[in-house]
Amino acid sequence: MEVTFKVYRKDPEKDGKPGRSNYTIDIPEDATVLDGLLKIRDEIDSTLAFRASCLRGYCGDCLVRVSGRARLSCVAKVTAFTQKAPEISLDPLRIVPVIKDLVFDWDAFMWNKIRAVQPWLEPKEPASDGENLIPDAAMKDLRKVMSCYYCGMCDEGCTVLPVDFNFLGPAALTKAYRFAFDPRGKETRERLKILEEPKGIWDCVHCYEADEHCPRGIEPTKRIIALRDLAFKLGITNEKVARHHKSFAASVKESGWLDEGRLAIESEGLTNIKGLMKLLPIAARAMARGKAPIPYLHPKRPGADKIKKIFEKGEQETK
Amino acid sequence: MQEFDVLVIGGGASGLRAAIAAKHAGAKVALITKIHPLRTNSGLAQGGLNAPLGKGDSPESFAEDTLLAGDGLCDRDVVRTFAAEASKEIIWLERMGVPFNRNGEGRIDLRPFGSNSKSRTCYTDDRTGHIVLQVLHEQAQRAEIPSLEEWFVTSLVADGNSCAGAIALSLRSGKLDSFSARAVILATGGFTRLYLPSTVSLGTTGDGQSLAYSAGARLMDMEMTQFHPTVFPRNPALLITEAALSEGAVMVNQKGEPIRLAKGLSREKICLSIHNAMQNGGGSVSLDLRPIGKDKLLSRFPQTHELVRGLAGLDITKEPIPIRPVAHRSVGGIETNATGETSLPGLFAVGECACNGLNGAGRLAGNTLTEAVVFGRKVGDAAAKYAKTASKKSFPSAKLSDEEKAITALVSGSSSGGDSSGKIHADLGRLMSEKVGLIREQAGLQEALDRIHRLKQRYRALRVRNTSRIYNYELTTYLELGSMLTLAEIVAQAALGRTESRGAHQRADFPQKDDRNWRNHTLVSLVQEEPRWDQKPVAG
Questions:
Q1: Which of chain A's residues have a Cβ under 8 Å away from the Cβ of B198?
Q2: Cβ contact A58–B43 (<8 Å)
Q3: Between 3.10.20.30, 3.40.50.150, 3.30.200.40, 3.40.50.300, what CATH number should domain A2-104 receive?
Q4: Rounded to whole angstroms, how far apart are CA atoms B419 and B421?
Q5: Residues A5, A188: Cα–Cα separation, whole Å
Q6: ipTM, two decimals
């Protein structure tokens, strides 16, 4: 069958401006996108740059956007994209620095971020000569996370990264989960301190796009939330969003409803003079319109005691 | 020029393990690799890695099975060392974080696999290579080993009679640079892309074997390439782990009749059974995984389920999958001793690119990854020790400008009359599968040699049209094809020379094993631009 591949082009040795090349090729019905790309490079245009390695969906190296959707070109069948017209478009991911054509900067996109979470186990001192004795259930969860082939589709789907490229992103944070929840490792607290820094776990907006995009069903958002819970459990709650969560819960628990003034102050931090000063103009304007609640002078709502009991029950259960 | 004690070329399991060991031994180490370590061919290994950890198992029994699979060409001392050290190395991997499947006691579960006489294969579902590779990469980062990724090594550099380093091309910058090292470890993997179809990744093109050969090191038993029996034969082929057979899958012929296999058959024998069934019945053979049971298929073979469905459009829980033997792993490679020393001082080799006498004429299923970690550690240690005592070598600086000129001459930008690396490779791959494949015979091998010569002529007339240096994959593909053509001729010549059938080398015209004449290794090295053939008797 004849299909036209419309491919994004960029040549850093020329003007570096993006363009597009169209190649019409004859390929078998069951051809993958990578089959087509390899044919183009070999027979029509040897300057076309794209990556590939395992050829069969094990490794993640050949991630591109096929007609707008992030796919591994080695397992994406061309016919899945040609129902309307015999053509497909190929582009690099939306948010990555492109080096040449479909070759983008994996270091900036993912590897450097993974490196930043100290991606290795610091093993505990072994109890005996043999292997650690661990139930398979604990290992099964790690195997699921480690089925990740670093394709980056979760980062491509993430809604924070297009706004803030320095966010560690779901791939790196999922990698961090793998160590934080490995019973054989010893330094969870230190790693969580890294993760709670700005651009870490608290910058996730839990839109669940990463879970939708992950081809392996690893559910990166769920992993990020698990890391947050663990951070709370270990009392690592210095980050603004963590303080926000804590204050929110405390005020609802105590009075049955949200003390907004208190939330603003405690989110900034009681000793954060600079942050608190910034609140003053907002507080003044709100006060002028009669909308500023006085922090901590916050009457209980009817039924607040019942709400408190719900909190206590929940706290008991998580213990 | 960058300077190191130990330069490891290749970022797969063997290279990472060697780099970690050399670093722990106090050497200044760097890893240089043409693709990111997590994208290497090690990640494709599925079934597991062997260690005699089970009750009632022993290093002796493990060694015995390895020797049987090697069919009389193994070095006994190397096998014994390997079997004795395997468990320690697997325990190390476990402690560093491999989430092995566990049994009811919380110990590493052991699966029956291939022709192992005991259950001794440790595994992580059907993604063992992928996960072991991750843990090794993690520990390499923990050891702060610099990793030069997307650097393509174009040549090894010798100072007199010893290896002094390498010259490599950065895909990203397009620039050549030189790397001086007291010891160089080749861990570049196999050369199975000589065959099409094959089960390996795009870059498994024998770069290391070719670099070593060009630098004067000896290659050994290059006629031995293992075929894998249970492969869905599209191109690229899709391997279904042999663990499926051990766990209850059955092979059936075109009529749906089961093909009976004796228990504990080697890969080579299973391949021959399939081949015979296809010849006799004139039809196809399928693997029926349904007897394993749907639940177990989904929990133990999740990757196989996903990929067969995606690429073949078939569901392993519902229907049999067509299979045939497909070229899988190089058994021959760069001749080394147990600590990875090649015939060229200062040059070491480990893993699939090496041939240290462990695998003989055929590799036991589940030994590849164990080999990578056991010998990765030993060779890393040995190279670090060598680097400590070796005097500083002088790196001939003219080499870099020579290499620059050679590359510039290749990249001419002129058209080559419609021929291309891809076309030559397609012809080579088909030729190797047909004439130097599972079953060989004299006339076919001679024809293969003639045709390889013609392919080499086409190759010599070929020029690289892409004049850009940045991510010039036409250039790297061209260089890889050069390696493959060099090795193809050696493989065919070695296969022609061995007038017997043994392990992975099966001759239709010499169907018997000939221990009287052929308990010998085939050796070849480049002497004054010509191959010199030799033999050495099997040790032990």
A1: none
A2: yes
A3: 3.10.20.30
A4: 7
A5: 48
A6: 0.95
